[in-house]
Amino acid sequence: MTEHTPQGPVDASLTPRYAGIATFAKLPRIEDVPAADIAVVGVPFDTGVSFRPGARFGPSHVREASRLLRPYNPAQDISPFARKQVVDAGDIVANPFSLDEAVRQVEEAATELGEQVDKIVTIGGDHTIALPLLRAINKKHGPVAVLHFDAHLDTWDTYFGAPTTHGTPFRRASEEGLIDLTASMHGGTRGPLYGKGDLEDDVKLGFQIVTSEFIEEHGIPAALEKIRERVGDKPLYISIDIDVLDPAHAPGTGTPEAGGLTSREMLRLIRGLADLQIVGADVVEVAPAYDHAQITAVAASHVVYELVSAMAGRD
Ligand SMILES: N=C(N)NCCCC(=O)O
Ligand SMILES: [Zn+2]
Ligand SMILES: [Zn+2]
């Protein structure tokens, strides 16, 4: 915890919230404070996508929508920006012409940032970036429980022979021993697969699943019970692909699947996990070109805010 009184966001009652440069939630930049506890950082990168491109514009789009966030979160009864020094750490530079170099750059930058702050919430970017982010967090915490909210499993093996894509990060991370596979889960998965073998492979790796259908059938409390039982008090990394939401709630994404969660359900799920030992998180796959009226960006900005609130609430 920093020694200084946290510097909060620009006061929207003194400076119009639509004025000025958009940092996340109008928070100070990391350079503007002596020390920080929680950093929000962008990774504008989408070289790993299999369908619609454009997630490289995700971080700036989410920051724009986050201008409207306010400092008190009644749902968690917490003022996250007063409790902890939360900052915007800008964007990590990721080479769009070399996926391998980009992955190295993300790992290196996230490792460095992780030495400066306690916890990081990353805004993507396509889901490829979860791999270097998990490599970075592994150096700090060892293998972490991964709670992965997504329409997709993202444990596929290769695409066009390529091992590193947005459909493969959790397969690679499992193989590298970055994930505690006794405590990890997918949440909100649904939709057509390549074959039954996709699910069998996923089980073999060690993941469990709370599907979108399970959540609809049994409700959020039952889903939370399953997740909490699985994760326990292990260091937890939460990776949220915005396509876990139904396309009605998140049209601005690259591989949309019908039958997903509402934003209200997603926010409730995070709140129900707020007391767990969350050590890092990402929110990925926001692709503004397919967004309308900032629907996806508003949802994503609230998801990030809820994650930051959860992290700020636990010492
Ligand atoms: N990670 C995301 N969003 N999508 C993965 C989809 C991979 C596929 O095209 O089969
Ligand atoms: Zn997905
Ligand atoms: Zn994904």
Automatic annotation (TrEMBL):
<dbReference type="InterPro" id="IPR006035">
    <property type="entry name" value="Ureohydrolase"/>
</dbReference>
<keyword id="KW-0479">Metal-binding</keyword>
<protein>
    <submittedName>
        <fullName>Agmatinase</fullName>
        <ecNumber>3.5.3.11</ecNumber>
    </submittedName>
</protein>
<dbReference type="InterPro" id="IPR005925">
    <property type="entry name" value="Agmatinase-rel"/>
</dbReference>
<dbReference type="GO" id="GO:0008783">
    <property type="term" value="F:agmatinase activity"/>
</dbReference>
<dbReference type="Pfam" id="PF00491">
    <property type="entry name" value="Arginase"/>
</dbReference>
<dbReference type="InterPro" id="IPR020855">
    <property type="entry name" value="Ureohydrolase_Mn_BS"/>
</dbReference>
<keyword id="KW-0378">Hydrolase</keyword>
<comment type="similarity">
    <text>Belongs to the arginase family. Agmatinase subfamily.</text>
</comment>
<dbReference type="InterPro" id="IPR023696">
    <property type="entry name" value="Ureohydrolase_dom_sf"/>
</dbReference>
